[in-house]
Amino acid sequence: MSATLLAPPTPQVPFTRMDCADPALLEELMGAVREVAAHGAFTLGHHVEAFERELADYCECDFAVGVSSGTEALALALRALGIGNPTHPGNPAHPDEVIVPANSFIATAEAVTAVGATPVPVDVDPDSHLITAEHVAAALTPRTRCVIPVHLYGATVDLHPILALAREAGVEVIEDACQAHGARYRGERVGTLGALGCFSFYPAKNLGAWGDGGAVVTSRPELADRVRLLRAHGERPRYHHRVVGSTARLDALQAAVLRRKLVRLDGWNEERRRLGARLRERLTGAHHHLAGAGTDPVTGTDAVAGPDPVTGTDAIAGPDPVHLPFAGADHVYHLF
Fold this sequence. Notes:
Blueprint: H1 23-39, H2 46-59, E1 63-67, H3 70-80, E2 97-101, H4 107-114, E3 118-122, H5 133-139, E4 144-147, H6 159-169, E5 172-176, E6 184-185, E7 188-189, E8 196-200, E9 214-218, H7 221-230, H8 252-262, H9 265-283, E10 306-307, E11 314-315
Parallel strand pairs: 2-3, 2-4, 4-5, 5-8
Antiparallel strand pairs: 1-9, 6-7, 8-9, 10-11
């Protein structure tokens, strides 16, 4: 009888590395959670305010407002600009249009529909996979109120031409920086060049919380104040409600975790770049197929399939353009 020789299993590179893989970091973050629990202050409060100051400093802007998710960040940013009709979400007859890239996570278009405006998906550059001023210009109409460029996988959109076009057309720009924590565009932190910038702290991000979380950044005080008002029932002062808002506050537990991780973000990003450069060097000349929709923001390598941090199953980030899997597709213009 002959023995069957089995090839050794192919090493798997995880799609993301969760905090439990670093015992020292895990212990520090557990200490942050214990600190919040010991004081019993779970909603807004010291840790949220401190994180907002630290994030604004990191982004080199004047204000940061912690919210419950990146999706809420986008929706609140739109509402702060007076875009949409939140009492009738998904109304196809509503005149406000918002230009979004077709190549993005669903939340970009979803937030537009949630506030009662109409997402207008446009194609992207075939090389960068990002929206360009040329694509925006072709989609502008008298009903356009806003453009949401998405810094996808950390690759930054060429913003200056889009900002110039938007100024000329009289429309606002909201940056979706939910996948670009720490990235710069021509020396400036992304998220700070438009009227508002939006971040997600989903656990798989390079700045990830222990649950959902997000933030809106801006240097316009009236917009920061509006987002703060909208994230907490429009309440000011206590039990006096000025506008119809929502429950979209950043939890103190998440803020405490994020404060410990924010100080490490630049170092983590640099390590990703180093490892990405090494990976590209090793793959030079090799025959390989990398499944995915674009370039990883920090490493510069193509995005690959890997285990989803929530389900544990393999996943490919953004395999379809937003108008195809979109449940509100009747409220989306098709421009392809």
